[in-house]
Amino acid sequence: MTTLTIDIGGTKLAAALVDADLQIRERRELPTPASKTADALREALKALVEPLSSRAKRVAVASTGIIREGSLVAINPQNLGGLMHFPLVQTLEEITGLPALAVNDAQAAGWAEYHAIAGEIRDMVFITVSTGVGGGVVSNGKLLTGTGGLAGHLGHTLADPRGPVCGCGRVGCVEAIASGRGIAAAAQDELAGCDARTIFARAAEGNVQARGLIQHSAQVLARLIADVKAITDCQRVVIGGSVGLAEGYLGQVQHYLAQEPSVYHVELSAAHYRHDAGLLGAALLAHGER
């Protein structure tokens, strides 16, 4: 059965037709609308999925934020241009005429990544470092979502009590420092106003400030991973996202994690499905493989 899968992120919207064997047959992308209105997201989703929906039997959407009873409740509204509540399942069922399912994007990606290595381990944590920082926790072969959908929102754990205010309202969250948005917000002088992609490019050119910003992000992420190991005793942590998969970033995280006491060490790997993990995880969950 073909599933129309959608991935809603802070930077882009992606949609694909995914077969039962997890093969992507067609994929489309659009920028996430910067407008702070539900109408803008609704129209963007309509434009994205209408060319694909006639060839699918169901819809599965993976979205940034908390998914609660089919609605998107943004824990950090800045990641979706200020959008706080959105009836995700209802909207997509109205657009496509198909039954829909919604799940947090990092939870979906974590399930896809676990699916890729399920024969090897039973406990895994996925962390995405992108516009924000999110996570998906698999414990004893089961994806944890929580009764309110909050499980796995690792980016909103504390990194620095004197750090910047996070979009969720807390002070010093991992997301406020280590994410692409956090890296960009900390840039000063000649890098002020640059996005994370530009900062990574400048770091590759040898810019000292750019390198320092990325190193700080990697160090904060390594500390988060040590915390995750202490809480879950996971066997592997998989890193994804545009920042997490950027060249050289995982190596820096491994360097800083190695400086933690050995009890907090855990195997790290890059996401097997790269930037398609959210799409494929949503399809797996729609298939009932959970």
Automatic annotation (TrEMBL):
Q: Which UniProt keywords apply?
A: ATP-binding, Carbohydrate metabolism, Kinase, Metal-binding, Nucleotide-binding, Transferase, Zinc
**Record's PROSITE patterns?**
ROK
Q: What EC identifiers does the entry list? A: 2.7.1.60
Pathway info: Amino-sugar metabolism; N-acetylneuraminate degradation; D-fructose 6-phosphate from N-acetylneuraminate: step 2/5
Q: Which HAMAP family match?
A: ManNAc_kinase
Q: Explain the purpose of this protein.
A: Catalyzes the phosphorylation of N-acetylmannosamine (ManNAc) to ManNAc-6-P.
Which named protein is this? N-acetylmannosamine kinase
Q: What is the lineage of its organism?
A: Bacteria, Pseudomonadati, Pseudomonadota, Gammaproteobacteria, Enterobacterales
